Predict the structure.
Amino acid sequence: MHFVVCAKQIPDPETPPSAFKIDATTNEVIPAQGFQPVLSQFDGIAAEAALRIKEAAGDDTKITVLSMGAESAQAAIKQVLAMGADEGVLLQDDAFEGGDSHTTAQVLAAAIKNLGDVDAVFCGRQAADWDMGQVGLLLAEALEWPVAILAKDVQIADGTMTTTRVLADGFETVTQSLPAVVTVSNEFGEPRYPKLQQIMQAAKKTVTTQTHDDLSINPGSVGAAGARLKLERLFIPESDTQVELIEGDTPEEQAQALVAKLQADKVL
């Protein structure tokens, strides 16, 4: 079997909010200095799901990691390779930049078709930066494959994928024929942490770069040129919250002062 894991590089979620800046003219986030981008945590979980199935199925299963982005996105690919994936493909082209979920799905679908023998595609439930959760569904539509979303368990056997989906009021088990797309939720569990030896081995694994020419994509249909979502404004919310310190030599005095303040403001 041949699995594909879609991996996205995002700003480090541990970056303090004060480090983020916005370029108002381009509606883009200015990368925070001193903080390296990381693999989206949900894509790491999707990789874990694919790896567990590979380990159960045997060594004849291959996992390819796809990532669309700048050269730095190779780090996200290498992380999944260190976890146990076999090869990586970086989709890098100026024509891919400035797109939305729709154009991202179109590029990924073209890359998957270019691979030619894919049985299943594993995506995170959403990217941990924009949190839209659309690419997996749009990718399945572009491929014309069945899709299961928000999976907390994934099993593949005898040409079918069985998933247990997370619902608002419980769980649902669905079965669909391969090839298929699945988006894996955080309820699946934590992804594995590569060991030093695996990280060193990943450095030797192949990562190829593909452009719109390699994928036979019309550059006018992807990236900013093909985007259906128009971002009107990106900004950091302004806050007018005021803070008043309650003074007192002891906790009791501070409590009494707080009560007096709340009563004066007619809160109590």
Observations:
- The longest helix spans residues 41-57.
- The radius of gyration is 23 Å.
